[in-house]
User: Fold this.
Amino acid sequence: MLAMLSREDVLYQMFSDDEGSGTERPRPSSPLSPIPSISSRGDSWIEEAYGDKGEASSSTGVGPQAQPSSPLPRSGINQEVRWGVLEEVAPEQAAAPPAPAPDPNVGQQPLIPELDPPLLTDNIRREELDHRLGLILFGHSYAPSIRDSIVETQLQIEKKIEGALVSDGYSPDDVFAKRHKIRGFLFYPHGTALEEGTYLSHLKEIRRNGTRESVPYRRITRALKNFYLLIATCK
Assistant:
Protein backbone atom coordinates (compact mmCIF):
# COMPACT_ATOMS: atom_id res chain seq x y z
CA MET A 1 0.00 0.00 0.00
CA LEU A 2 2.93 2.36 0.71
CA ALA A 3 4.47 1.56 -2.66
CA MET A 4 1.15 2.33 -4.36
CA LEU A 5 0.73 5.69 -2.62
CA SER A 6 4.36 6.67 -3.30
CA ARG A 7 3.85 5.97 -6.96
CA GLU A 8 0.66 8.00 -6.95
CA ASP A 9 2.36 10.97 -5.21
CA VAL A 10 5.07 11.06 -7.85
CA LEU A 11 2.52 11.12 -10.64
CA TYR A 12 0.52 13.82 -8.92
CA GLN A 13 3.54 16.11 -8.42
CA MET A 14 4.69 15.59 -12.01
CA PHE A 15 1.41 16.73 -13.54
CA SER A 16 0.59 19.47 -11.02
CA ASP A 17 3.86 21.39 -11.80
CA ASP A 18 3.53 21.19 -15.58
CA GLU A 19 5.26 24.18 -17.33
CA GLY A 20 5.35 26.24 -14.15
CA SER A 21 1.58 26.51 -13.96
CA GLY A 22 0.35 27.34 -10.52
CA THR A 23 -2.96 25.67 -11.10
CA GLU A 24 -3.54 22.94 -8.61
CA ARG A 25 -5.14 19.86 -10.01
CA PRO A 26 -7.37 17.59 -7.97
CA ARG A 27 -5.59 14.59 -6.61
CA PRO A 28 -7.27 11.22 -7.03
CA SER A 29 -7.86 9.46 -3.77
CA SER A 30 -7.06 6.05 -5.23
CA PRO A 31 -6.35 4.44 -8.62
CA LEU A 32 -9.98 3.27 -8.73
CA SER A 33 -11.48 6.73 -8.02
CA PRO A 34 -12.90 8.70 -10.97
CA ILE A 35 -10.34 11.16 -12.36
CA PRO A 36 -11.63 14.56 -13.55
CA SER A 37 -10.78 15.75 -17.02
CA ILE A 38 -8.15 18.53 -17.24
CA SER A 39 -8.83 20.96 -20.06
CA SER A 40 -5.21 22.23 -20.41
CA ARG A 41 -3.69 18.77 -20.95
CA GLY A 42 -6.70 16.78 -21.92
CA ASP A 43 -6.88 13.19 -20.73
CA SER A 44 -3.36 12.24 -21.82
CA TRP A 45 -2.05 12.27 -18.24
CA ILE A 46 -4.62 9.58 -17.38
CA GLU A 47 -3.19 7.32 -20.06
CA GLU A 48 0.35 8.06 -18.86
CA ALA A 49 -0.55 7.33 -15.26
CA TYR A 50 -2.93 4.44 -15.68
CA GLY A 51 -2.46 3.12 -19.20
CA ASP A 52 -5.08 2.68 -21.96
CA LYS A 53 -8.82 2.95 -21.17
CA GLY A 54 -8.16 4.34 -17.70
CA GLU A 55 -6.98 0.98 -16.31
CA ALA A 56 -3.66 0.55 -14.50
CA SER A 57 -0.93 -1.30 -16.35
CA SER A 58 -0.20 -4.77 -15.05
CA SER A 59 3.56 -4.14 -15.43
CA THR A 60 3.54 -1.42 -12.70
CA GLY A 61 1.47 -3.42 -10.29
CA VAL A 62 -0.93 -0.47 -9.86
CA GLY A 63 -4.66 -1.08 -10.07
CA PRO A 64 -6.63 -4.25 -10.73
CA GLN A 65 -5.39 -6.71 -13.32
CA ALA A 66 -7.95 -8.26 -15.64
CA GLN A 67 -7.96 -12.04 -15.73
CA PRO A 68 -8.34 -13.62 -19.19
CA SER A 69 -11.42 -15.73 -19.51
CA SER A 70 -10.80 -19.37 -20.18
CA PRO A 71 -11.98 -20.47 -23.63
CA LEU A 72 -14.80 -22.96 -23.91
CA PRO A 73 -13.69 -26.46 -24.84
CA ARG A 74 -14.13 -27.49 -28.42
CA SER A 75 -16.51 -30.33 -29.07
CA GLY A 76 -15.38 -33.35 -30.99
CA ILE A 77 -16.94 -36.62 -32.02
CA ASN A 78 -19.70 -37.75 -29.65
CA GLN A 79 -19.10 -34.60 -27.51
CA GLU A 80 -21.12 -31.48 -26.88
CA VAL A 81 -20.68 -28.29 -24.81
CA ARG A 82 -23.31 -27.59 -22.17
CA TRP A 83 -22.82 -24.43 -20.06
CA GLY A 84 -19.11 -24.43 -20.76
CA VAL A 85 -18.64 -28.06 -19.69
CA LEU A 86 -17.50 -30.73 -22.12
CA GLU A 87 -19.70 -33.78 -21.84
CA GLU A 88 -19.51 -37.15 -23.50
CA VAL A 89 -22.57 -38.27 -25.42
CA ALA A 90 -23.26 -41.97 -25.42
CA PRO A 91 -23.32 -43.50 -28.91
CA GLU A 92 -26.83 -44.82 -28.37
CA GLN A 93 -28.04 -41.26 -27.62
CA ALA A 94 -26.85 -39.96 -30.97
CA ALA A 95 -29.62 -39.18 -33.44
CA ALA A 96 -30.22 -42.23 -35.62
CA PRO A 97 -31.73 -42.00 -39.11
CA PRO A 98 -35.42 -42.97 -39.25
CA ALA A 99 -36.08 -46.57 -40.17
CA PRO A 100 -37.60 -47.05 -43.64
CA ALA A 101 -41.26 -47.92 -43.75
CA PRO A 102 -41.85 -51.63 -44.35
CA ASP A 103 -42.95 -52.59 -47.83
CA PRO A 104 -46.43 -54.12 -47.56
CA ASN A 105 -45.72 -56.29 -50.63
CA VAL A 106 -42.64 -57.91 -49.11
CA GLY A 107 -43.26 -61.50 -48.11
CA GLN A 108 -46.63 -61.72 -49.89
CA GLN A 109 -47.33 -64.43 -52.41
CA PRO A 110 -48.20 -63.28 -55.96
CA LEU A 111 -51.90 -63.41 -56.79
CA ILE A 112 -52.48 -66.16 -59.36
CA PRO A 113 -56.15 -67.13 -59.32
CA GLU A 114 -57.10 -70.35 -61.10
CA LEU A 115 -60.42 -72.02 -61.75
CA ASP A 116 -61.29 -75.35 -60.21
CA PRO A 117 -62.51 -77.03 -62.31
CA PRO A 118 -61.05 -75.20 -65.34
CA LEU A 119 -63.22 -74.09 -68.22
CA LEU A 120 -61.61 -76.70 -70.46
CA THR A 121 -59.77 -79.94 -69.83
CA ASP A 122 -56.04 -79.97 -70.47
CA ASN A 123 -56.26 -82.52 -73.29
CA ILE A 124 -58.86 -80.61 -75.26
CA ARG A 125 -57.08 -77.32 -74.61
CA ARG A 126 -53.76 -78.81 -75.75
CA GLU A 127 -55.29 -80.07 -78.99
CA GLU A 128 -56.82 -76.68 -79.78
CA LEU A 129 -53.59 -74.82 -79.04
CA ASP A 130 -51.53 -77.23 -81.13
CA HIS A 131 -53.92 -76.90 -84.06
CA ARG A 132 -53.82 -73.07 -83.89
CA LEU A 133 -50.02 -73.07 -83.68
CA GLY A 134 -49.80 -75.42 -86.68
CA LEU A 135 -51.80 -72.95 -88.77
CA ILE A 136 -49.59 -70.07 -87.68
CA LEU A 137 -46.38 -72.02 -88.40
CA PHE A 138 -47.51 -73.27 -91.79
CA GLY A 139 -44.56 -73.18 -94.15
CA HIS A 140 -42.04 -72.86 -91.30
CA SER A 141 -39.96 -75.71 -89.96
CA TYR A 142 -39.85 -76.08 -86.17
CA ALA A 143 -38.39 -78.94 -84.21
CA PRO A 144 -41.16 -81.05 -82.60
CA SER A 145 -39.63 -80.44 -79.13
CA ILE A 146 -39.85 -76.65 -79.57
CA ARG A 147 -43.43 -76.88 -80.82
CA ASP A 148 -44.45 -79.06 -77.86
CA SER A 149 -42.74 -76.66 -75.45
CA ILE A 150 -44.63 -73.69 -76.89
CA VAL A 151 -47.97 -75.51 -76.62
CA GLU A 152 -47.38 -76.50 -72.98
CA THR A 153 -46.35 -72.97 -72.06
CA GLN A 154 -49.40 -71.50 -73.77
CA LEU A 155 -51.62 -73.95 -71.90
CA GLN A 156 -50.31 -72.80 -68.50
CA ILE A 157 -50.60 -69.12 -69.41
CA GLU A 158 -54.15 -69.43 -70.72
CA LYS A 159 -55.43 -71.18 -67.58
CA LYS A 160 -54.03 -68.40 -65.37
CA ILE A 161 -55.47 -65.66 -67.61
CA GLU A 162 -58.91 -67.27 -67.52
CA GLY A 163 -58.78 -67.51 -63.73
CA ALA A 164 -57.88 -63.80 -63.39
CA LEU A 165 -60.67 -62.72 -65.79
CA VAL A 166 -63.32 -64.67 -63.93
CA SER A 167 -61.94 -63.40 -60.60
CA ASP A 168 -62.26 -59.82 -61.92
CA GLY A 169 -65.98 -60.31 -62.59
CA TYR A 170 -66.14 -61.47 -66.20
CA SER A 171 -68.58 -64.17 -67.13
CA PRO A 172 -66.93 -67.63 -67.28
CA ASP A 173 -69.33 -68.68 -70.03
CA ASP A 174 -68.38 -65.66 -72.16
CA VAL A 175 -64.67 -66.18 -71.41
CA PHE A 176 -65.05 -69.75 -72.68
CA ALA A 177 -66.98 -68.62 -75.76
CA LYS A 178 -64.39 -65.92 -76.65
CA ARG A 179 -61.33 -68.15 -75.96
CA HIS A 180 -60.19 -68.23 -79.61
CA LYS A 181 -60.19 -64.44 -79.88
CA ILE A 182 -58.51 -64.16 -76.47
CA ARG A 183 -55.72 -66.47 -77.70
CA GLY A 184 -55.03 -64.12 -80.58
CA PHE A 185 -54.24 -61.25 -78.18
CA LEU A 186 -52.33 -63.51 -75.78
CA PHE A 187 -50.11 -65.57 -78.08
CA TYR A 188 -50.09 -63.89 -81.50
CA PRO A 189 -50.26 -60.11 -80.93
CA HIS A 190 -48.51 -59.43 -84.26
CA GLY A 191 -50.18 -62.21 -86.25
CA THR A 192 -47.21 -64.56 -85.91
CA ALA A 193 -45.89 -66.86 -83.21
CA LEU A 194 -43.47 -65.46 -80.66
CA GLU A 195 -40.18 -67.08 -79.73
CA GLU A 196 -40.21 -70.02 -77.34
CA GLY A 197 -38.17 -68.00 -74.84
CA THR A 198 -40.73 -65.16 -74.94
CA TYR A 199 -43.57 -67.45 -73.92
CA LEU A 200 -41.41 -68.90 -71.15
CA SER A 201 -40.54 -65.43 -69.86
CA HIS A 202 -44.25 -64.50 -69.75
CA LEU A 203 -45.00 -67.58 -67.65
CA LYS A 204 -42.13 -66.78 -65.27
CA GLU A 205 -43.41 -63.22 -64.94
CA ILE A 206 -46.85 -64.47 -63.92
CA ARG A 207 -45.36 -66.79 -61.29
CA ARG A 208 -43.09 -64.04 -59.95
CA ASN A 209 -45.40 -60.97 -59.97
CA GLY A 210 -48.89 -62.39 -60.26
CA THR A 211 -51.23 -62.70 -63.25
CA ARG A 212 -52.47 -59.11 -63.23
CA GLU A 213 -48.90 -57.73 -63.30
CA SER A 214 -47.89 -59.65 -66.43
CA VAL A 215 -47.59 -58.68 -70.07
CA PRO A 216 -50.20 -61.19 -71.35
CA TYR A 217 -52.90 -59.96 -68.94
CA ARG A 218 -52.18 -56.32 -69.76
CA ARG A 219 -52.72 -57.14 -73.43
CA ILE A 220 -56.21 -58.43 -72.60
CA THR A 221 -57.12 -55.46 -70.40
CA ARG A 222 -55.87 -53.06 -73.10
CA ALA A 223 -57.99 -54.80 -75.74
CA LEU A 224 -61.01 -54.61 -73.44
CA LYS A 225 -60.42 -50.93 -72.74
CA ASN A 226 -60.14 -50.10 -76.44
CA PHE A 227 -63.17 -52.28 -77.29
CA TYR A 228 -61.14 -54.61 -79.49
CA LEU A 229 -62.39 -57.41 -77.26
CA LEU A 230 -65.81 -57.63 -75.64
CA ILE A 231 -66.45 -59.98 -72.72
CA ALA A 232 -69.66 -59.90 -70.74
CA THR A 233 -69.47 -59.39 -66.99
CA CYS A 234 -71.41 -61.30 -64.35
CA LYS A 235 -74.70 -59.75 -63.31
In short: The beta strands are 79-82, 85-88. The longest helix spans residues 144-167.
